[in-house]
Write a structure and sequence with these properties.
The chain has 230 residues and is of the alpha/beta class. It folds into 2 domains: 119 residues, Rossmann fold; 73 residues, Winged helix-like DNA-binding domain superfamily/Winged helix DNA-binding domain (Arc Repressor Mutant, subunit A), CATH 1.10.10.10. It contains 11 helices and 5 strands; from the N terminus they run βαβαβαβαβααααααα. Strand 4, helix 4 and strand 5 form a beta-alpha-beta unit. Helix 6 crosses helix 11. It starts with 13 loop residues before the first strand and ends with a helix. Keywords: DNA-binding, Phosphoprotein, Transcription, Transcription regulation.
Length: 230
């Protein structure tokens, strides 16, 4: 993604859709994101069903999605958005970082989550990171979520076997990138560690999505952890 600066040329704004049933929350998010050259709020929706419709109509880059909403909750809305031809990145919004529904949302295809009281600089950084294909979950949060998913599954051995079978199709370099994703590293951190360019890392991550049948980095991390690679 282009960086700001005198020599960087015109910035293509990140198109953001806000989906929350509380008008005050939507207004606060729009206020925090508004006025930034690199971010444009292209629309708002007050429930999950409207959010899916607006995502299909507006083709945003990132959706900030509440979990608890009328008509259609954020979990099902996230699943339906992921089924779009060119799905945007989805960041779910929650009040509690230990909410079981957050885990379900990530499994449904969301790219991460934010607490609703996230400071504006962190909110902006998260939107930029997700739009650029980087994870917005810290390594510690990623490990916590993965541990919870594994602990809730009585068939952990079967998960390990399935994960190893899925990972067996990867090349040696793709496996290295997968392990790094499993550790919660960003594209830039992976590039530095493996002596690759950031675009090359992005290409490898895209190939991981394709080969593993995943839609986000958290799902890659779950597969890697299930296999015992991290």
């Amino acid at each position: 993604m282009a960086t700001l600066g005198a020599m960087s040329g015109p910035v293509t704004p990140i198109r953001v859709l806000l989906v929350d049933d509380d008008p005050l929350v939507r207004s606060a998010l729009a206020l925090m994101l508004g006025g930034r050259e690199e971010i444009t709020v292209v629309g708002e929706a007050g429930d999950g069903e409207a959010g899916v419709n607006e995502a299909a109509r507006l083709s945003p880059d990132v959706v900030l999605m509440d979990i608890r909403m009328p008509r259609l909750d954020g979990l099902e809305a996230t699943r339906r958005i992921q089924a779009l031809a060119s799905p945007p990145r989805v960041i779910v919004l929650t009040t509690f970082d230990a909410d079981d529904q957050v885990v379900a949302a990530l499994a449904a295809g969301a790219d991460g989550f934010l607490l609703k009281d996230t400071p504006p600089p962190d909110l902006l950084a998260a939107v930029r990171a997700v739009a650029d294909g980087d994870p917005m979950l810290s390594p510690s949060v990623t490990r916590t979520l993965i541990d919870r998913i594994r602990d809730d599954d009585p068939a952990a051995d079967s998960r390990t076997t399935r994960a190893l079978e899925r990972l067996d199709v990867l090349t040696e370099r793709e496996a290295e990138v997968a392990r790094a994703v499993g550790r919660g590293l960003s594209n830039a951190e992976i590039a530095a560690e493996l002596f690759l360019s950031v675009p090359t890392v992005k290409a490898h991550v895209s190939k991981l999505f394709e080969k593993l049948g995943t839609t986000n980095r958290v799902q890659i991390a779950i597969c890697v952890h299930d296999a015992g690679w991290v």
